[in-house]
């Protein structure tokens, strides 16, 4: 862990450890490029990161002011400077935290822990007056379930949020009930098919990752949470659907796999209209539109059909629903690519940034970067996370879009079943005209994200206001909070123990081309609201093929298990083995893929829930 | 990480980490142990996560030991979680000729314990290696001091090793595996993580898995 100087020359310097940057790092390193990969944060995965509960509290708490330093003394003739900025400043805003714990628990906690802390004080952030008032109202209502302890309302706009590993974890608020194992922040699912899964398999990076399948898909309708039948067996076993509906649904799902003339006739018209004309009935229309296609009333037929097909194709690949959840969160995935990069010689430094770029005035190329320690490092190419690039350099066609997010810790499931280990995706259509559809994911302790007996819930939608404005009305309907309308009637709904609201930039709304940047500087955007993650993979691949058009993108890494040395064929064997392995590995993978496709042609039925067009 | 059993023979797969400062001899120790090789100058290992050593532990037990080297992330100590994931044992290595590498040992141990735990929540067994003992000078810490350091820091024990002269490398590995096996008796890996999915093993279980309700 010694801090020593870095080599002074690399082929590619990459700033930011988000998915696109990490995939690019792995791809370059894999084909022998010398890669330096840095991030100014203390953790991997940038805006894709997963945190422990304590880590998350730290993230909320830590502020770090970005001081501009003058490195102009390191300039050579004919060079000018582009300063970089702090990525967290622009991408996260409207952060609000509420902590509710029951009075009983509080007593227990007081008995067991000697230092019940007031988080508002510890965090040095002013408690929101209004929220505190709410808390007293709740108390006077005599409610035994919740009591608002803390409300933190801070707007992060001028400071970055930084997890500081030197800060002792002692002054963590009294969250014994909710924390322990850790609750992960950027929870995201992924479709079991698509660029990301293909790339993980093709490159052998999948060996570093483990997944769980989402176990059920739910939807919220007429104030109730219902299960959406997810496989052929589910459809037939379903008690919500009539026999006629079952037949209709199976027929529809089978028929929509192929493009028909009837479908073509609806191109340019809403998918909801197409569905209505299929005479499926309200139930099925709802399931298909909101839970399978996961689109809105206004989505066009061609797009709706494409989404429906994608859902059906993903179904059954690894389990009963089309969605995968990386164990420990999606933040693991960029790290898998970073590991691959490191294994092939890439050098990693966290808490280490690039302060500025040195640009040759004549060629408009970035010749070198100056890192945050003032070292000049030459590079042929520079790849950067969008957030580090100042707004004055960006071409902004449309105002940046945001996603509203909420993270809750609750005490029971929104739909109890005979297993308390479900992973559920809940699609929630707009609750009122003009509202966005919301995608909700509920994780049980089986995902290693929360303590037994608690659930971690993530809500996501396109922002129209702040995350709190967008999502809290829904939260107070589905869950029991001090804001819930009918306090007397809450025995059935899960209580919220802790929640966090924030807005984050929507990566899909960001242009990656056409900015005022040197020709060998490439920009990557952050996560978008979608589940496919196609965007990040495409960006990495595009950057790679621009720089190395003739090289293979992430060819399979040799499987170390297959490299067996038995004493004599050693040292040099490494290089040779690699060549041989590459080809075999590739072939094997292809075989596997084909097999998978073959086993899947029978269309199963399903229904899922989730929204957010990734357009 | 226990494997299945063929008739009477039990097969185990263990991921073991080899961590420590740059240049202390991690790669050399792995090469010595797995490939019976030592070289003063060889190029950095590129493209290989781990080296595999197959041990016929006894007549009934086969152990496949994956020794994970730390690749390009060691320089600044920023390991990804991916590296630590599912490890069941670790060697922390320092260089007896460079005091600073010993000082970094507790940092590495701390990083290790904060990033991976056994299924039962206890830290993974780890062994401290005082490498390059062939170059040992008089001033090296006394055995008593080392023993108490190990106790305080949570190491099972320590060995003076030399990758160059092949001293104690096999012994240290044997000691660690012995401890891992003792831990493993308690909790078979398959049982606790049975429903996890590896992408390259798809659809095997799609049908056999219990449905969603
Ligand atoms: C994304 C992710 C992936 C994981 N993957 C694995 C895995 O593959 N295998 C596995 O066994 N475990 C994994 N874990 C669990 C992890 O390695 C630890 O075992 C777990 O975080 C320890 O939890 P704990 O309850 O003991 O928390 P603690 O160890 O008490 O605290 C953990 C948190 O406390 C805070 N903290 C601790 N020390 C400090 C400090 N000095 N300064 C500031 N804050 C501090 C941090 O926020 C830290 O995240 C993962 C965790 C995360 C977040
Ligand atoms: N004398 C001596 N030199 C060693 C020993 N082990 C490693 N070295 C040397 O120390 C240097 C660094 O070793 P290496 O295995 O690359 O260290 P790593 O960075 O920890 O992987 C190399 O020059 C090795 O030859 C040892 O036991 N004795
Ligand atoms: Mg090495």
From TrEMBL, chain A:
Entry's transmembrane regions: none
Places the protein is found: Cytoplasm, Cytosol
Gene Ontology BP annotations: intracellular protein transport; small GTPase-mediated signal transduction; vesicle-mediated transport
A cellular-component GO term for this protein: Rab-protein geranylgeranyltransferase complex
Biased composition annotated in UniProt, kind: Basic and acidic residues: 120-136, 580-595
Keywords: Cytoplasm, GTPase activation
PANTHER family, A to Z: CHM, RAB ESCORT PROTEIN 1 (PTHR11787:SF4), RAB GDP-DISSOCIATION INHIBITOR (PTHR11787)
Similarity field: Belongs to the Rab GDI family.
Described function: Substrate-binding subunit (component A) of the Rab geranylgeranyltransferase (GGTase) complex. Binds unprenylated Rab proteins and presents the substrate peptide to the catalytic component B. The component A is thought to be regenerated by transferring its prenylated Rab back to the donor membrane.
Protein name: Rab proteins geranylgeranyltransferase component A
Automatic annotation (TrEMBL), chain B:
Statement: the UniProt record of this protein carries the keyword Plastid: no
Protein name as annotated: Ras-related protein Rab
PANTHER family in UniProt: RAB FAMILY, RAS-RELATED PROTEIN RAB-32 ISOFORM X1
Gene Ontology cellular component terms for the protein in this record: late endosome; lysosome; membrane; phagocytic vesicle; trans-Golgi network
Subcellular location: Endomembrane system; Membrane
Bilayer disposition of the protein: Lipid-anchor
GO BP term, pick one: phagosome-lysosome fusion
PROSITE patterns membership: RAB, RAS
Major localization listed first in the record, in broad terms: membrane
Keyword Nucleotide-binding: yes
One family name in Pfam for this protein: Ras
InterPro entries documented for this protein: P-loop_NTPase, Rab29/Rab38/Rab32, Small_GTP-bd, Small_GTPase
Protein task: The small GTPases Rab are key regulators in vesicle trafficking.
Family, as annotated: Belongs to the small GTPase superfamily. Rab family.
GO molecular function: GTP binding; GTPase activity
Record SMART domains: RAB (SM00175), RAN (SM00176), RAS (SM00173), RHO (SM00174)
Keywords from the UniProt entry: GTP-binding, Lipoprotein, Membrane, Nucleotide-binding, Prenylation
């Amino acid at each position: 862990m010694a801090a020593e100087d870095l080599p002074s020359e690399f082929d590619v310097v990459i700033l930011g450890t988000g998915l696109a940057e990490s995939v690019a790092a792995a791809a370059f390193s894999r084909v022998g490029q010398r890669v330096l990969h840095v991030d100014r944060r203390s953790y991997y995965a940038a805006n894709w990161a997963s945190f422990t509960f304590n880590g998350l509290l730290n993230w909320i708490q830590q502020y770090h002011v970005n001081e501009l330093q003058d490195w102009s003394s390191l300039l050579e003739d004919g060079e000018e400077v582009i300063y970089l900025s702090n990525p967290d400043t622009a991408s996260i805003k409207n952060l609000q935290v509420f902590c509710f714990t029951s009075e009983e628990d509080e007593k227990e906690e007081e008995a067991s822990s000697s230092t019940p802390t007031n988080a508002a004080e510890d965090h040095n952030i002013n408690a929101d007056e209004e929220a505190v008032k709410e808390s007293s109202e709740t108390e006077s209502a005599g409610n035994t379930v919740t009591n608002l302890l803390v409300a933190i309302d801070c707007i992060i706009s001028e400071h970055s949020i930084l997890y500081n590993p030197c800060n002792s974890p002692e002054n963590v608020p009294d969250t014994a009930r909710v924390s322990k194992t850790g609750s992960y922040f950027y929870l995201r699912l992924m479709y079991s098919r698509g660029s990301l899964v293909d790339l993980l398999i093709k490159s052998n990076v999948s060996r570093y990752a483990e997944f769980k399948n989402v176990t059920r898909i739910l939807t919220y309708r007429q104030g109730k949470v219902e299960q959406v039948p997810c496989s052929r067996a589910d459809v037939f076993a379903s008690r919500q659907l009539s026999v006629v509906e079952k037949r209709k649904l199976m027929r529809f799902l089978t028929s929509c796999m192929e493009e028909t003339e009837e479908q073509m006739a609806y191109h340019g018209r809403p998918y909801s209209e197409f569905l209505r004309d299929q005479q499926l009935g309200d139930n099925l229309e709802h399931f298909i539109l909101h839970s399978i296609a996961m689109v809105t009333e206004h989505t066009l037929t061609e797009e709706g059909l494409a989404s429906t097909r994608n859902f059906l194709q993903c179904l059954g690949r690894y389990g009963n629903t089309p969605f995968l959840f990386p164990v420990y969160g999606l933040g693991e995935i960029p790290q898998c690519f970073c590991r691959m990069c490191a294994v092939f010689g890439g050098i990693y430094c966290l808490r280490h940034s690039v302060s500025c770029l040195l640009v040759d005035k004549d060629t408009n190329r970035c010749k070198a970067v100056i890192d945050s320690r003032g070292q000049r490092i030459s590079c042929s190419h520079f790849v950067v996370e969008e957030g580090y690039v100042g707004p004055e350099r960006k071409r902004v066609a449309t105002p940046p879009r945001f996603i509203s997010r909420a993270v809750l810790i609750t005490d029971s499931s929104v739909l109890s079943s005979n297993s308390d280990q479900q992973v559920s995706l809940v699609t929630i259509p707009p609750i009122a005209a003009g509202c966005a559809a919301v995608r909700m994911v509920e994780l049980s302790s089986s995902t290693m994200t929360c303590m037994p007996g608690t659930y971690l819930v993530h809500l996501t939608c396109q922002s129209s206001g702040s995350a709190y404005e967008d999502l809290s009305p829904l939260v107070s309907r589905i869950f029991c909070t001090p804001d819930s309308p009918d306090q007397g009637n809450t025995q059935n709904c899960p209580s919220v123990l802790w929640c966090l609201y924030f807005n984050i930039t929507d990566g899909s709304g960001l242009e990656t081309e056409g900015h005022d940047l040197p020709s060998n500087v490439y920009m990557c955007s952050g996560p978008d609201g979608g589940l496919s993650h196609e965007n990040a993979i495409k960006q990495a691949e595009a950057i790679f093929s621009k720089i190395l058009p003739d090289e293979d993108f992430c060819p399979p890494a040799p499987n170390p298990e297959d490299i067996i040395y038995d004493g004599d064929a050693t040292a040099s064997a490494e290089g040779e083995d690699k060549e041989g392995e590459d080809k075999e590995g590739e072939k094997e993978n292809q075989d596997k893929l084909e097999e998978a496709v073959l086993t899947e042609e029978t269309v199963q039925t399903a229904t899922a829930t989730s929204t957010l067009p990734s357009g | 990480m226990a494997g299945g059993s063929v008739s009477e023979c039990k097969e185990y797969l263990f991921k073991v980490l080899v961590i420590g400062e740059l240049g202390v001899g991690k790669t050399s120790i792995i090469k010595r142990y797995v490939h019976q090789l030592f070289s003063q100058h060889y190029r950095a290992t590129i493209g290989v996560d781990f080296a595999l050593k197959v041990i016929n532990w006894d007549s009934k037990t086969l152990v496949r030991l994956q020794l994970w080297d730390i690749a390009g992330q060691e320089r600044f100590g920023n390991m990804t979680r991916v590296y630590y994931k599912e490890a069941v044992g670790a060697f922390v290595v320092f260089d007896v000729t460079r005091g600073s590498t010993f000082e970094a040992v507790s940092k590495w141990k701390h990083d290790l314990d904060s990033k991976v735990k056994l299924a039962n929540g206890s830290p993974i067994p780890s062994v401290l290696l005082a490498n390059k003992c062939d170059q040992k000078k008089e001033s090296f810490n006394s055995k008593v001091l080392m023993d108490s350091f190990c106790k305080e820091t949570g190491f099972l024990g320590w060995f003076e090793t030399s990758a160059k002269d092949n001293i104690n490398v096999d012994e240290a590995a044997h000691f660690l595996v012995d401890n891992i096996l003792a831990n493993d008796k308690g909790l078979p890996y398959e049982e606790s993580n049975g429903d996890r999915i590896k992408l390259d093993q798809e659809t095997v279980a799609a049908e056999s898995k219990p449905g969603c309700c």
